[in-house]
Specification:
Length: 177
């Protein structure tokens, strides 16, 4: 997969409807009310000839994304692929963990299948993830000549002016002299 947005069908409607900046737009920054979580997950094919080991991993993610798009109450705000890495924004760590551990949703069966497959196929495919809890207002973004991207897709795009004109200002820090 190339660097691309998670398909519109796989994103909650509120993420699709957020401010859509266009190339040539003014400097913008993103705002998202409250705390949120950034979750990054990816895979690495270590033995490409073992297709039966890595193809199920590759195919599992679209099913999970489609499910999350149908159920915005599960907490996914949106996401974007960057190669074989998926960067997601979640309402909370509790939402993310509840989805990951739920027997009624796609993730847990896929995770169990991966672990069983790994015992048979060894190190043919690797997966990784990182989770970051972000406190309200403890982030900064800027977008220049960019369409809505990253946090700008799931939050609200606003002009990067006034106190938002600098990285320090967007982080709520005093301007340096």
């Amino acid at each position: 997969m190339d660097s691309a947005d998670v398909s519109s069908a796989a994103l909650p409607a509120r993420a699709q409807a957020s401010g859509q900046a266009a190339v040539g737009s003014p400097r913008l920054t993103a705002e998202l009310e409250g705390d949120f979580v950034v979750f990054m997950i990816g895979m690495r094919v270590n033995q490409p000839w073992k297709i039966s080991a890595w193809l199920p991993v590759f195919r599992a993610m679209p099913k999970m994304l489609a499910e999350l798009a149908r159920h915005p109450e599960l907490g996914l705000l949106g996401g974007r692929f960057a190669g074989t890495t998926l960067i997601q924004y979640w309402r909370s760590a509790e939402h993310l963990q509840a989805y990951a551990q739920s027997r009624q949703h796609q993730h847990l069966p896929a995770w169990r299948a991966f672990n069983q497959n790994t015992r048979r196929a060894g190190s043919a495919v690797g997966i990784w993830h990182e989770t970051y809890k972000v406190a309200a207002g403890q982030y900064e973004t800027v977008y220049v000549n960019m369409p809505a991207f990253g946090l700008g897709q799931v939050g609200r795009l606003v002009p990067a002016s006034g106190r938002r004109a600098t990285a320090a200002g967007r982080l709520g820090q005093p301007a340096s002299e």
